[in-house]
Amino acid sequence: MDDVEKKDRAERYKLSFDLLKHLTTLSSGSVILILTLADRLSKTAQPVGFLWYAVVCFCLVIALGMLPMAILAVNINRSQPSVKEANFFAISATFAFILFFVGMGVVVASAIKQLGIF
Length: 118
Prior knowledge:
Layout: H1 3-44, H2 48-74, H3 83-115
């Protein structure tokens, strides 16, 4: 593997790591915000029950996002990750993205219901 390929692979790893880092950071912030506002919302709103589904989704995103980040960190100096690691990375990162958007959808649906838009 020449220097250009090594730099290209390192850049792909860095971009993937940063994307997962941002996803886990947004999920952590969402959990903190929901838990902070749940006390206020529980007195006036019925959709608070839906928000717990969002908290679960965001917690799963954090867990599933940390696993591919660990795989990237371990493989940064290797020429190629194993097939098992690559498959695990793809599956866990895909589920993390899906759960993030499901969680955000639940938050938006709960806000729409709370505001009485629909």
